[in-house]
Amino acid sequence: MPTRHVLLAIVVAVLWGLNFLAIHASLTQFPPLFLIALRFALIAVPTLILVPRPRVRWRWLIGYGVGFGTLQFLFLYLGMAAGFPTGLSSLVLQASAPFTVLLGALLLKERLGARRLVGVGVATAGLAVVGLSYGTSAPLGPFLLVVLGALGWALGNLASRQARAENPLHLVLWMSIVPPLPMLALALVVEGPARIGASLTTSLSAAAVPAWIGLGYTVLLGTLLGSGIWVWLMARHPAGAVAPFSMLVPVVGISTAWLALGEAPAPLELVGGALVIGGVLWSARGPRPPATGAAAASDRPRVGARLG
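That's the EamA family transporter sequence above. Prediction below.
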């Protein structure tokens, strides 16, 4: 990859790492379920008006929206609202990678291979270490919610892979039409009109400015700009060259949460995080191709597989 493309990949990792601070800020003002509906509605409305629908089957578009857009953020936001640390959330969400490998083997009959099996095992062990370390000083429920969010992301990965969109960015944008209405309905039932109304009424105060900034960041920088650059890079380079940069996301997330919120991770959590990242990187490395032409051919189908 040219240096400027490497720098762009690092920029995306920074944007996505800071995204967790933005979510934290938004959750101080808005209830989590309503916040998800609001976040995706702000993307869905202009998408329906301005962006052509990707030529993919509706079931894969809806599946991507349910897995990546709805389930991932439903459990992530609930976990963070319940007190799971912002920085650790960026790490635990990386469990989507081993989940994707396992679900691909179970549901799509994809070949697992020894390397991927070892990588998944190491990442799972690291996740268990993080959970055990966190669970000694806090309830385990919020941690499990974020793990379920990673599972939702993995399901979205499989749907996006099956969609095989010619323009993956259009798929990312059109996915946003799925979450708003069901999440708004769920928010009205669970959080109630009174709580939602109070969050909107008080959102016009100066104290709510960080929440609006956080919401704007997740929509404009975290989703549109970050995903746009990522898809652009994935279309121009092998997945194996681009995907490892996503492992910088928890590094940025943990570091910035430490600096901004004072969330110092415990030593065991750092050890578990290193295992998760190492396992994901190990499983992402494919076998060395025997020839240049074979290498190029083997990389092509992987481009759409990492768009989640």
